[in-house]
Description:
Elements: E1 4-10, E2 17-22, H1 26-33, H2 37-40, E3 46-53, H3 56-66, H4 72-76, E4 86-87, H5 91-98, H6 109-115, H7 119-132, E5 145-148, E6 155-159, E7 162-169, E8 176-183, H8 190-197, E9 202-205, E10 214-220, H9 223-226, H10 235-253, H11 265-279
Antiparallel strand pairs: 1-2, 1-3, 2-4, 5-6, 6-7, 7-8, 8-10, 9-10
Amino acid sequence: MPQGFVYILVSPNSNYIKIGGTKKPISDRIREINSVSSYARHGPWGLSDFLHVKDWQHVESALHQRFHKKRFIQKKKIDVAATRELFDVAPYEARKTLRQTSAIHRVGHKETEKVFGTRDLKLFLFNLFQLSGLFGCFDIQGAAWTLNLSGRFLFSLNIGPHAVACSERRSIDGKFTHYLSLDRLILDYPKTLRWLEKRNGGSMKSPYAGAKRAEQINFDADFAEADKLFSQPGIRRALVAYWFESLADLRQRNARSKYWRHHSYDAVSELMQYRYETENIFHPTVRFGDAI
């Protein structure tokens, strides 16, 4: 079975959506679509939703069949191969149908359910994505940035070659320690530094040689308490200053993280769905920096 992705794309310049599938990384496929003249004239296209599945051709075919009567060529009475994946369907309707795909068809879904079984952890990641602007960078996931749910950490979020956020459960007492890399301007906020110290943490220069302006903070807390970090003075500003610049540079260079093989597309897909459910968002064209 051809493992890959089934995706839904939207564009502010089109009344249609694109429902397609690919074995390529999402970032590569979106870049291709926006460079093909037959689709580019309807673009630019942004990611509305996707699933990482074990047989993308099977899932894609099911969606195409479901919306067959709403295809572009049916309405226009023309048969243009390059526009056969355009449909006159509301994005939320397409997402709802895609999400009806059985969990047994999804790649890595059991691992996602296991990690996200702790609702506070899922909420912590959701708020981290929201605060930092990662919800505007889904098109470069698995390339410029990655999310890993395996290994030593409960999760590890990487931008380029650097781990910028991770949490681990200590074997000695079962408590959680959290690490976050952000701009050193966080040092201008003593109230936040005291908040870290009260939780057995603090700040130190980033261990990564290439991260010139980065500070690494750490602290101990369960995820419900850790979530309070995001309301501390200077956190959002310091996150955006470091992460935004790094992501913009990686996007421009079309660079790929060395951790791309370990990226959990399924976990990101779950966070995307959680965002729609939580915020009742039905206008999903998200672009880089929208949440900044």
